[in-house]
Amino acid sequence: MEFGFSKEQDELREVSRKFLDRHYPAERVAEIADSADGSAAGGWQQLAALGWHDPELGLVERAILAEESGYALHPVPWWPTLTLSPLAKEEPMAFVLETECRAVSIPDGWRVSGRGGPVPELGGAAALVLAAQTTDGPVLLRVPATHLTITARDSFDGLRRMAEFNCDNAVAHLVCDAAATPGTIQVLHCWSQTLLAAEGVGVARRAYDFARAHAATRTQFDRPIGTYQGVSFRIAQTYVAIELALSLTYRAAWLVGQGSDKSGVDDAVSCAVVASREAAMLACEDAIQVLGGIGMTWEHPIHRWYRRALWLDAFGAGSAEHRQRLAAALLS
Amino acid sequence: MDLHDSAEQAQFRAGLREWLRQQPAGQAQMGSWNKALHEAGYAGLTWPQKYGGRGLSPVYQGIFAEECALADAPDQLNVIGLNMVGPTLIRYGTDTQQKKHLNAILAGEHIFCQGFSEPEAGTDLASIRTRARPTADGWVIEGEKLWSSYASFADYCLLLARTDPEVAKHRGITCFLLDMRSPGVTVRPLRQINGESDFGQIILENAFVPHECVVGPVDNGWQVALATLAHERGTFGITLTARLSVQFGRLLATVREMGKQDDPLVRDEVARLHVELSALRWTGYRALTSLEETGEPGPESSVLKLQWSQTHQRLTKLALRLLGPGALLDGAGSYWDGYWQAQVLRSRGNSIEGGTSEILKGVIAERIAGLPRSR
Asked: Is pLDDT at A33 greater than 80 in this prediction?
């Protein structure tokens, strides 16, 4: 039993943290969120150059990158890349595992028709990896963005924008055939959810850092507000939630990365998702409360992280559904 | 990162599990369990070999705590001797003290209790009032100690008393080894809100302690006490969490027996408790790993006791609610002889004993979050 990070993993975290801190301070993140496409120009190429696309990266290492990305609110579509990189080409991508698309195999490849979304990060993607129904069951296909009609939607989180797509007999390339697709979809669900759990831990840590920095310096009634237990206990409780979520997240990352048995993996992923969402929400809400009036302004960046926490809470199966799955396993 | 036992750890765990399975039931009382553990080599796992221990790393103590809890093994009567007094004597004790007590602690022949808390000194432990006055050949002690586990079984007590009332309160405290059979020592059971007596009250009326029973320098007992309390932190979280897993198993049994397994609200709350319990378990392993690597429990260990108390309190309340009108009864003839009734009441102490939740949050706020001191 050894539940700690290796020296190499600590270094990976340190290097990524420094990189993100240098390139994406909070003011820059806010500017990008309010910009036309909500993503740093050239940011993805930079990330690829740093090796984030490396198919050999383990899931614990990916989770470290995801956590630091949540901390920085890394304004680049890193999440589909870290989820898909063992499967897909080196390009900015989006993916969607539930669609109303149908695909047919033709002599020189595949054609796909249908619609889907809202899909995160689709706006800036070079290609979309989607699941489409065929006569043999679902397959995973890669569709170049140029063959899709993409409709951007006004998005609650300006840094992770949503878009819908339409396609009619569009050219597609096979990523995964009908025999392998159900298993691959299961793996992609686990990877993507675990990475989002790690992102949530990073979001929570950043909000906690905003809160404690403010509480240590903001003075009211001639004392730093962090000396009042009403404030300091709130921050302590946030710390507890972060530590608990972090343990569950890396336990899931390790187990999923090892390809452990399905029931163990399902349990670990659901626990991580539920705890991470709760930590991210609690940390952001407490940070806004501790910040007081300034935290309610558009200028203060905390709402960017709170929007991400709310995005995480809303994306995919809800926490109540995860808990029902856990209960089913416990009480079956 | 490797979340499985190493080959040696797995072997140790399997051997222990098999040994626990073979033990006859009913060894709980009067030290026979201590002796059985000692003979099987499971006492003093982390003590150095030159003091009769096995010199193993904290992970093995964690495995031991976990397997004992999961097997619902009896309470270890000399747990205070093994986990707190022994390591303290190894660090601060004289040769004579070590020779007298260490082997006897391992063998379960000297049962220890702890005389720290007092009516006016709970959270603020350094404000103890129990006085030790010097005589020609030792000290005479007068005062009252509360919340002392195993006091009614104990042969000895690791006791804090004030030896110099003129200096600042953290100074002027001395640590003693008190023979519980000395004249002037009276133990009364302390009846808790659930009617049971897990703790004792120790009344000291001119109890005599010879010079050779002072632990560490006179007036330096606070340092000794801090070291003693630090020994408790290491693997205690693992024990608490493993016991909570067993309690969670009992909750699931009650859910089924009450026919509530399809109630969506019950299922949701059961799943919430499962998430918290899993989080405690894996955070405990993280803490154990940092203890193993650095010799100190990491900052994450501070959340364990705080969260454990909240989770256990919610678990017992859910269990009692499941009984419906059955929760209005108690004692023989009620569901599980009033087990959950007693547990709900007892669990209120979880957020008080061993550091109140308020103190723990204050520690996190100041030492981890880096907030300015509130006092």
From this structure: yes
pLDDT one-digit tens code per residue, A259-313:
888 889 999 999 999 999 999 999 999 999 999 999 999 999 999 999 999 999 9
**Does A4 contact B1 at a Cβ distance shorter than 8 Å?**
yes
For B271, the token pair is 């799943």
What does the alpha-carbon distance between residue B255 and residue B272 come to, in Å, rounded to a whole number?
15
The alpha-helical segments, DSSP class H, found in chain A are 7-23, 26-33, 43-49, 59-72, 78-84, 181-217, 229-258, 262-291, 302-314, 319-331
DSSP conformational letter for B220: B
Q: Please tell me if residue A205 touches chain B, with a CB cutoff of 8 Å.
A: no
Structural domain that includes position B55: 7-107
Chain centre to alpha carbon of residue A192: 7
Which CATH superfamily, name and number, covers A93-179? Answer: Butyryl-CoA Dehydrogenase, subunit A, domain 2 (2.40.110.10)
> What CATH code is carried by the domain that includes residue B277?
1.20.140.10
Q: How far apart are CA B105 and CA B178, in angstroms?
A: 15
CB contact under 8 A, B271 and A226: no
Question: Does residue A255 sit at the B interface (CB-CB below 8 Å)?
Answer: yes
Name the residue among A163, A162, A192, A187 with its Cα closest to residue A175.
A187
To test the contact with chain A by mutation, choose from B5, B11, B274 the residue with the greatest count of A C-beta atoms within 10 A, namely B274
The one catalytic residue among B109, B142, B144, B232: B232
Contact assessment for residue B188 and residue B201, using Cβ atoms and an 8 Å cutoff: yes
Q: How far is A86 from chain B (nearest CA, A)?
A: 22
Contact B303 A271 (CB under 8 A): no
**A235·B365 Cβ contact <8 A:** yes
CB B148 within 8 A of CB B199: yes
Domain count, chain B: 3
pTM score, whole prediction = 0.96
pLDDT, one tens digit per residue, over B24-40 is 876 655 568 888 999 99
Chain A closest CA to B287's CA: distance in Å? 8
